[in-house]
Amino acid sequence: NARIFSMALVCACCFFATVGYAVLLRDMLEPIVDSIAKPPEGMGGGPTLARNAAMLVVVLCISPLTTWKNLTALRNVSAASMASVLTVGLCVAYRSIECQLGVVGENDENGS
């Protein structure tokens, strides 16, 4: 019984981690998707069909890489994953510095 419970707990954790990853990914892809497919007026930061489709495509491309029995299959994509983490870190740092210096972008209405 304890083994089944622990397996269910691991599956639940993996499922919720995937959901969290997908939501974060959709938010990060929002500017790119919105520049390609303009969202309807009044959508703001909410989900649109184009944003959800982009999230689904990326999740479907990445998820199979995590289902191998051992992780040696990931050795070919490790450099790409480190580059993507570095890119996200640089984007966050750039935006943080931009906000701290008070630089107002063209999309910022109130200057924050």
Could you walk me through the main structural features you see in this protein, from its secondary elements to its overall organization?
The chain has 112 residues and is mainly alpha-helical. Helices cover 64% and strands 0% of the residues. Helix 1 packs across helix 2 (49-62).
**Rounded radius of gyration (Å):** 18 Å
**Main structural class:** mainly alpha
What is the terminal-to-terminal distance?
Answer: 53 Å
Shape: extended
User: How much strand?
Assistant: under 5%
Number of helices: 3
Low-confidence stretches: none
Order of helices and strands: HHH
* Helical percentage: 55-70%
Task: Specify the biggest β-sheet.
Answer: none
Strand count: 0
The mean pLDDT is 79
Main features:
single chain, 112 residues, mainly alpha, 0% strand, extended
Draw up the topology in text.
Layout: H1 2-36, H2 49-62, H3 78-100
Summarize the model shown.
By secondary structure, the chain is an all-alpha fold. It contains 3 helices and no strands.
